[in-house]
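Revision sheet: structure tokens.
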Amino acid sequence: MSETAPTQPEATVAPTADVDPRATIGAGTRIWHLAQIREHATLGQNCNVGRGAYVGPGVTIGDNVKLQNHALVYEPARLANGVFIGPAAVLTNDEYPRAVTPTGRPKTGDDWTAVGVTIGEGAAIGARAVCVAPVSVGRWALVAAGAVVTKDVPDFALVVGVPARRIGWVGHAGRPLTAKGDGIWVCPETGTEYAEAAGRLSER
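Predicted:
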């Protein structure tokens, strides 16, 4: 007798959510009240989109991503698998924001070019943090609550402040790493070791 693979639950969308029919929503993803998912956005499997969150047109979001309440992800952002976006965090897309042109005419989509924020696998953006496009946040990095990211963030970096600066390293568990000596860092929760070289961190 052959075994049947377990079925993946369909996406769950709250009645008050606004999901454009041209968006692609992965199996098992949950979209909560008053969230808005715009046209041609792609969300992977098992994502969780909180109340009042916004996902712009054409945004690409991987699997197992969590957008907390009122997170704003503007196009053309790219979020890898396992990313966490905290409550009211913002990923911007306009380098030179203006409501009107130099002649005073209201700006339209033809008057500017959207630039996106890129978030690497497993990275976390804290509550009310702002990532100013076109920055990239590296794999498993952690951006502290309220930080303003204006420069690219390396993999595993812990950044805080306005503008954000690196104050340490974090591992897959999100805990600050402890220095072991000779450029070796260790996670206090898992015991995993990481090596630092030339301002970058990598798994051993």
